[in-house]
Design brief:
Blueprint lengths: L3 E5 L3 E6 L7 E6 L9 H9 L3 E5 L16 H12 L3 E2 L6 E2 L5 E7 L2 H6 L9 E5 L14 H12 L7 H4 L22 E6 L7 H11 L2 E5 L13 H11 L1
Parallel strand pairs: 3-4, 3-7, 7-8, 8-9, 9-10
Antiparallel strand pairs: 1-2, 2-4, 5-6
Length: 246
Protein backbone atom coordinates (compact mmCIF):
# COMPACT_ATOMS: atom_id res chain seq x y z
CA UNK A 1 0.00 0.00 0.00
CA UNK A 2 1.35 3.44 -0.88
CA UNK A 3 0.33 6.73 0.69
CA UNK A 4 -1.66 9.19 -1.38
CA UNK A 5 -0.96 12.92 -1.46
CA UNK A 6 -3.08 16.03 -1.58
CA UNK A 7 -2.77 19.74 -0.82
CA UNK A 8 -4.75 21.99 1.49
CA UNK A 9 -5.01 25.75 0.93
CA UNK A 10 -2.63 25.21 -2.04
CA UNK A 11 0.32 25.23 0.39
CA UNK A 12 0.09 22.31 2.78
CA UNK A 13 1.18 18.97 1.32
CA UNK A 14 -0.44 16.08 3.10
CA UNK A 15 -0.07 12.32 2.84
CA UNK A 16 -3.28 10.40 3.40
CA UNK A 17 -4.90 7.00 3.27
CA UNK A 18 -8.58 6.09 2.94
CA UNK A 19 -9.98 3.62 5.47
CA UNK A 20 -9.98 -0.11 4.78
CA UNK A 21 -13.76 -0.05 5.06
CA UNK A 22 -16.36 2.66 4.53
CA UNK A 23 -16.09 5.29 7.23
CA UNK A 24 -16.40 9.01 7.94
CA UNK A 25 -14.00 8.93 10.91
CA UNK A 26 -10.80 10.94 10.41
CA UNK A 27 -7.45 11.05 12.19
CA UNK A 28 -4.99 13.91 11.65
CA UNK A 29 -1.43 13.14 12.77
CA UNK A 30 0.71 16.05 13.96
CA UNK A 31 4.34 15.12 14.31
CA UNK A 32 7.29 16.51 16.21
CA UNK A 33 9.95 18.93 14.98
CA UNK A 34 12.47 18.22 13.72
CA UNK A 35 11.59 14.80 12.40
CA UNK A 36 11.56 12.88 9.17
CA UNK A 37 8.28 13.27 7.29
CA UNK A 38 5.81 10.48 6.97
CA UNK A 39 4.65 7.63 9.16
CA UNK A 40 3.59 4.95 6.70
CA UNK A 41 3.37 2.10 9.18
CA UNK A 42 1.12 4.03 11.58
CA UNK A 43 -1.03 5.36 8.73
CA UNK A 44 -1.57 1.85 7.40
CA UNK A 45 -2.38 0.56 10.88
CA UNK A 46 -5.00 3.26 11.51
CA UNK A 47 -6.45 2.85 8.02
CA UNK A 48 -6.97 -0.84 8.74
CA UNK A 49 -8.79 0.17 11.92
CA UNK A 50 -11.33 2.10 9.83
CA UNK A 51 -10.02 5.68 9.81
CA UNK A 52 -9.17 8.18 7.14
CA UNK A 53 -5.59 9.14 8.04
CA UNK A 54 -3.97 12.49 7.19
CA UNK A 55 -0.35 13.36 7.89
CA UNK A 56 0.24 17.02 6.92
CA UNK A 57 3.54 18.85 6.61
CA UNK A 58 3.48 22.14 8.48
CA UNK A 59 3.84 25.23 6.30
CA UNK A 60 7.49 25.87 5.53
CA UNK A 61 8.52 22.29 6.23
CA UNK A 62 9.49 19.55 3.81
CA UNK A 63 7.24 19.53 0.73
CA UNK A 64 4.85 22.28 1.90
CA UNK A 65 5.12 25.87 0.72
CA UNK A 66 5.45 28.92 2.96
CA UNK A 67 7.72 29.80 5.86
CA UNK A 68 7.84 27.67 8.98
CA UNK A 69 6.42 29.41 12.08
CA UNK A 70 5.38 32.51 10.15
CA UNK A 71 1.92 31.27 11.08
CA UNK A 72 1.21 29.21 14.16
CA UNK A 73 1.15 25.50 13.21
CA UNK A 74 -2.24 25.21 14.88
CA UNK A 75 -3.55 27.27 11.94
CA UNK A 76 -2.07 24.75 9.51
CA UNK A 77 -4.04 21.98 11.20
CA UNK A 78 -7.20 24.09 11.25
CA UNK A 79 -6.77 24.65 7.52
CA UNK A 80 -6.55 20.89 7.05
CA UNK A 81 -9.76 20.46 9.04
CA UNK A 82 -11.45 23.05 6.81
CA UNK A 83 -10.34 21.11 3.74
CA UNK A 84 -11.83 17.86 4.96
CA UNK A 85 -15.30 19.27 4.33
CA UNK A 86 -14.48 19.78 0.66
CA UNK A 87 -13.58 17.14 -1.90
CA UNK A 88 -10.06 15.76 -1.41
CA UNK A 89 -8.14 15.34 -4.67
CA UNK A 90 -5.36 12.77 -4.93
CA UNK A 91 -2.48 14.47 -6.73
CA UNK A 92 -1.20 11.17 -8.18
CA UNK A 93 -4.28 10.09 -10.09
CA UNK A 94 -6.79 12.94 -9.76
CA UNK A 95 -9.34 10.79 -7.93
CA UNK A 96 -11.70 12.81 -5.73
CA UNK A 97 -12.76 11.71 -2.26
CA UNK A 98 -15.80 13.15 -0.52
CA UNK A 99 -15.34 12.24 3.12
CA UNK A 100 -18.16 14.12 4.84
CA UNK A 101 -16.42 13.67 8.22
CA UNK A 102 -18.53 13.10 11.30
CA UNK A 103 -15.71 12.37 13.74
CA UNK A 104 -12.32 14.10 13.67
CA UNK A 105 -9.55 12.98 16.03
CA UNK A 106 -6.31 14.92 16.40
CA UNK A 107 -3.24 12.96 17.48
CA UNK A 108 0.04 14.76 18.12
CA UNK A 109 3.35 14.38 19.85
CA UNK A 110 5.98 16.77 21.21
CA UNK A 111 6.04 19.86 18.94
CA UNK A 112 2.77 18.66 17.40
CA UNK A 113 1.10 18.59 20.82
CA UNK A 114 0.20 22.30 20.85
CA UNK A 115 -1.28 21.94 17.34
CA UNK A 116 -3.81 19.40 18.57
CA UNK A 117 -4.46 20.89 22.02
CA UNK A 118 -5.03 24.42 20.67
CA UNK A 119 -7.62 23.07 18.24
CA UNK A 120 -9.54 21.13 20.88
CA UNK A 121 -12.23 23.78 21.22
CA UNK A 122 -13.06 23.59 17.51
CA UNK A 123 -16.57 22.13 17.47
CA UNK A 124 -15.60 19.88 14.54
CA UNK A 125 -12.90 18.16 16.63
CA UNK A 126 -14.18 15.14 18.54
CA UNK A 127 -11.17 14.17 20.67
CA UNK A 128 -7.51 15.07 21.07
CA UNK A 129 -4.80 12.56 21.98
CA UNK A 130 -1.33 13.96 22.77
CA UNK A 131 1.97 12.23 23.56
CA UNK A 132 4.56 14.27 25.49
CA UNK A 133 3.12 17.57 24.21
CA UNK A 134 4.93 20.85 24.68
CA UNK A 135 2.74 22.74 27.13
CA UNK A 136 4.81 25.84 27.83
CA UNK A 137 7.74 26.91 25.66
CA UNK A 138 8.93 29.25 28.43
CA UNK A 139 9.83 26.25 30.62
CA UNK A 140 13.30 25.26 29.47
CA UNK A 141 13.93 21.70 28.39
CA UNK A 142 16.63 19.77 30.24
CA UNK A 143 18.30 18.72 27.01
CA UNK A 144 16.93 20.86 24.16
CA UNK A 145 16.81 24.62 24.70
CA UNK A 146 14.91 26.62 22.09
CA UNK A 147 18.14 28.19 20.85
CA UNK A 148 19.88 24.84 20.54
CA UNK A 149 16.88 23.24 18.85
CA UNK A 150 16.65 26.04 16.28
CA UNK A 151 20.34 25.83 15.39
CA UNK A 152 20.26 22.03 15.30
CA UNK A 153 17.21 22.03 13.02
CA UNK A 154 18.91 24.41 10.60
CA UNK A 155 22.17 22.51 10.53
CA UNK A 156 20.84 18.96 10.56
CA UNK A 157 17.72 19.31 8.42
CA UNK A 158 18.65 22.16 6.06
CA UNK A 159 15.74 23.21 3.85
CA UNK A 160 13.53 20.59 5.45
CA UNK A 161 12.50 23.51 7.69
CA UNK A 162 12.65 27.00 6.24
CA UNK A 163 12.38 29.64 8.95
CA UNK A 164 13.85 32.96 10.02
CA UNK A 165 15.40 33.55 13.43
CA UNK A 166 12.67 36.11 14.05
CA UNK A 167 9.91 33.56 13.56
CA UNK A 168 11.71 30.83 15.51
CA UNK A 169 12.25 33.17 18.45
CA UNK A 170 8.50 33.75 18.72
CA UNK A 171 8.45 30.46 20.63
CA UNK A 172 10.42 32.13 23.44
CA UNK A 173 7.75 34.76 24.06
CA UNK A 174 5.26 32.32 25.50
CA UNK A 175 2.57 34.09 23.48
CA UNK A 176 2.88 32.01 20.32
CA UNK A 177 1.84 28.38 19.82
CA UNK A 178 1.79 27.92 23.59
CA UNK A 179 -1.11 25.97 25.18
CA UNK A 180 -0.60 27.35 28.70
CA UNK A 181 -1.16 30.88 27.38
CA UNK A 182 -4.45 30.24 25.57
CA UNK A 183 -6.93 28.54 27.91
CA UNK A 184 -9.78 29.97 25.83
CA UNK A 185 -8.73 27.71 22.92
CA UNK A 186 -8.77 24.50 24.96
CA UNK A 187 -11.60 22.12 25.77
CA UNK A 188 -10.17 19.92 28.55
CA UNK A 189 -13.03 17.42 28.21
CA UNK A 190 -11.73 16.45 24.77
CA UNK A 191 -8.05 16.17 25.69
CA UNK A 192 -6.13 13.06 26.74
CA UNK A 193 -2.39 13.35 27.44
CA UNK A 194 0.17 10.56 27.77
CA UNK A 195 3.46 11.66 29.32
CA UNK A 196 6.43 10.27 31.22
CA UNK A 197 8.29 11.15 34.42
CA UNK A 198 11.68 10.59 32.78
CA UNK A 199 11.03 12.83 29.76
CA UNK A 200 14.10 15.06 29.47
CA UNK A 201 12.82 16.96 26.42
CA UNK A 202 9.48 18.22 27.76
CA UNK A 203 9.55 18.64 31.57
CA UNK A 204 6.79 16.47 33.00
CA UNK A 205 6.15 18.95 35.84
CA UNK A 206 4.71 21.63 33.56
CA UNK A 207 2.56 19.00 31.85
CA UNK A 208 1.30 17.73 35.19
CA UNK A 209 0.43 21.25 36.34
CA UNK A 210 -1.48 21.87 33.10
CA UNK A 211 -3.40 18.61 33.47
CA UNK A 212 -4.31 19.33 37.08
CA UNK A 213 -5.33 22.90 36.34
CA UNK A 214 -7.56 21.90 33.43
CA UNK A 215 -8.74 18.51 34.72
CA UNK A 216 -7.65 16.76 31.53
CA UNK A 217 -7.65 12.98 31.33
CA UNK A 218 -4.13 11.61 31.29
CA UNK A 219 -1.75 8.72 31.73
CA UNK A 220 1.58 9.29 33.50
CA UNK A 221 4.29 6.70 32.85
CA UNK A 222 7.18 6.17 35.23
CA UNK A 223 9.47 5.40 32.30
CA UNK A 224 9.29 5.95 28.59
CA UNK A 225 11.22 9.13 27.94
CA UNK A 226 9.99 11.45 25.21
CA UNK A 227 6.98 9.72 23.67
CA UNK A 228 5.85 9.64 20.05
CA UNK A 229 2.68 8.78 18.14
CA UNK A 230 4.26 5.45 17.10
CA UNK A 231 3.17 4.16 20.53
CA UNK A 232 -0.29 3.75 19.01
CA UNK A 233 1.08 0.67 17.26
CA UNK A 234 1.26 -0.98 20.67
CA UNK A 235 -1.94 -2.65 21.86
CA UNK A 236 -1.89 -0.94 25.26
CA UNK A 237 -1.93 2.58 23.86
CA UNK A 238 -4.25 1.90 20.94
CA UNK A 239 -6.74 0.39 23.41
CA UNK A 240 -6.56 3.58 25.51
CA UNK A 241 -7.27 5.64 22.41
CA UNK A 242 -10.04 3.27 21.30
CA UNK A 243 -11.75 3.47 24.70
CA UNK A 244 -11.39 7.25 24.72
CA UNK A 245 -13.22 7.70 21.43
CA UNK A 246 -15.98 5.30 22.43
Amino acid sequence: MYLLRTRFKKEIVCEFLPPARKSNKVIILCGGVPSMPGNKKLAEFLSEKGFWVFNPRYRGSWESDGNFLEKSPEIDIRDVIDGLFEKIVSIYDGIEYDIKPKKIYLIGSSFGGPAVILNSKDERVTKVFAFSPVIDWSVESKTESIDWLGEFTKQAFGNGYRFSDKDWNKLKTGKFYNPISFPDKIDPKKVFIVYSKDDEVVPFGSTKDFINKNSCKSLLLNKGGHLSTSLLLKARFYNIFSNLIK
